[in-house]
Every structure is written in C-alpha cells, then in structure tokens.
Amino acid sequence: MSNVTSPFLQHGREVFVVDAVRTPIGRAHPEKGAFRDTHAVTLLRECLTALMDRSGIEPAEVDDVMTGCVNQFGEQSRNIARSAWLAAGYPYEVPATTVDRRCGSAQSAMAFAAAMIASGTLDVVVAAGVEHMQHIPIDAHVKVSDLYGSPWPPDLLERYDFIPQGLSAELIADRWDISREAMDELAVGSHARAVQAAEEGRFARELVPVETPHGTVALDQGLRPTTSMESLGALRTVFKEDGRITAGTSSQLSDGASAVLFAGRDAVDRLGLVPRARIVDQVTVGVDPIIMLTGPIPATRKLLRRTGLTIDDLDLMEVNEAFASVVLAWQRELGADLEKTNVNGGAMALGHPVGSTGTRLTATLLNDSSGPTTNSV
C-alpha cells in the first residue's frame, strides 16, 4: 500500500513507528495479580527503558513523552508520564504529559505524538499508556470527587442519563441483535488465538519482562486455555439479569503498560533509526455517550473514506474487545473479516488495562506484521 495517500500525508511530514513494547498484562487481583505489589510507575518505567534500549536512541533525543492513563489518582496521579521518565533516570529536560480520553487514552497519546511530528513541531516522541486497575479501581477519582460535587451539572444530566459501559454493551447487543452464543464464540476464539500466539512465541518481540517482589513476570496472566462454549455458557450475566453480557464476554480488569516510539523522516535519517511502520492517517470521533462503545464504527468509516481504502484492503486489524458485542457490531456494519481481526486474541483473553490498551494494540499489530517496514492504517 505504498501508493496510499491521505490528508495526513499530503499536508504533513512523514511519521514512522520505530518500535513498540509492552509489559505482560497482569490480572487485577489482590492476591493472585502478577503486579499486586508493583507500582504503576514501575510498569511504565520498564516500557520506557526497553524502548530506549531497543531503539538505541539517546533519551535526550526525545522531544516529549505523551502517556495515556484513565484513573489519574493515587500512584497514577501527578503526571505519571513524568514520574516514570524520571524514575528511569532520564534527562529532566525532556517534558512529559498524561492524557485521559478514557479507553482511548493511549490511542490519543499516539495521535497527538504523530500530529506534532507531522506538523514539524517535534521530531521524536514517545507515546505510551499505563493502568494499574488493582491499585486504582476504575473511576476511583470520580468516587472521591463526588464528595465535592458531581462531575456532571444538572443541565447535562437532563440531556443524558449516563450509564455504565456494561449496560452500553448490552444496548449494542440489543440494537444489532447479537446473540449470547455469537458473543461466547468470539470470546472462545479470542482465548484460543491468544493461547496459540503465546505458545508460538508471537508476543516475544513486544513483551518486556518485569521484575516483581514475587519473581519475574514474562507472560500474560489472563489467558485461559480451557475456555469453551460450555464453560462460558455456565456464566451468569453481569450487567442485566435478562441480559447477554457475561464476565467471559467482557474485557478483563488488568494491570499493564505499553509504549511506542515515533520519529519523523529527518530524525530517522539523522539518528540512523530503522522504521517498522508508517502512519498513513488517523482519526478521532465522538459518539452518543449512552452507547459510547460504537466509536470504532464511524472511526473506521471515516478513515477508509479519507484514505480511499476499503476494509478488504487491510491485512490485519485490531479492534479492542472491550465487550464481545462491540467487535461484532463493528464487523456487521463494516463487513470486516474476523479472520484478519485480533489474530492474536484480544482484551477478553489478554486483558484491558484501560489507559494502556491503545499502545498495546499497536505493539501487537506491529509485531505481527511482516517485513521491517509496513504501511499501517
């Protein structure tokens, strides 16, 4: 797809992905979680260190560090991107910032990084993500802030009856008439693919082992080789008594970090870097906040329209498995081939450390593509 063009390429400098790494993903469990006694800053630090070491770039050459993190509270507060960079012993002259766009936080960090390079403002940027969901439960900061007032004023609540994401996933299943059996089948396939990928060593290039008080963590913790239609069929629904979504068709609460190194053409040439992918285009969309998980549908449509590509032109795709209904609704609307989607499993098997998942998806996609340089959309 070297001849593909887009507004991004037409109006900006070329942006390349040099490398991408991630920690293993640990279960968010107080007793069995692999990272139960590991600080969130440590997880991100290990990714930053590995990224610098693998690329051979001097940390001082980095212009900025942009990191996604949803729950910026407790050990993830006070700009965790900056804390991790300093914890790695890297130059304090390099700035860092932390981004919250909920589950798309790390994806936004990448979008900002690529846009800044394309504009000519920066040359080398690290985009990363981190979330320790065992130490900082989902929306912990909102629960504390409720002591000082609701995050939503009355007039906004008159417009929207905000609901949990699980209920949004149920609404998607209802709207697209997605059966529980179809969702269970997708989840079984996710586990089977992830287990096979792990056994074949397909995650090896992206994984960064992490030393913990309980030993070295080198493998993803959430994989369940025994997952079957029978075992998932025995699960109760979790968001509605008469619903269709179960724990098995939901993403796992997890701990982890990931990071991607971006560079412009001038920096690639000047520093002798070997790019592994090129950014062809990128989009961000907004959707109805009540059924917010449908975002991949208009985002994919807009991206294909801007690039002139069709869904069949894409060889590999990653769509976050926040819930099985999300992927299946996207597939039905776009006509995507699920054999080319999440080929190494997704968040139902690997886990979904929310602030980290965007860069994790990129690491997995990058490391499963062939050749030293590929076009990525």
From TrEMBL:
Keywords tagged on the record: Acyltransferase, Transferase
Domain spans labelled Thiolase C-terminal: 275-367
CDD domains referenced in this protein's UniProt entry, alphabetically: thiolase
Entry keyword annotation includes Transferase: yes
Gene3D superfamilies: 3.40.47.10
Source domain of life: Bacteria
Domain Thiolase N-terminal: 15-264
UniProt family annotation: Belongs to the thiolase-like superfamily. Thiolase family.
NCBIfam families recorded: AcCoA-C-Actrans
Protein name: Thiolase family protein
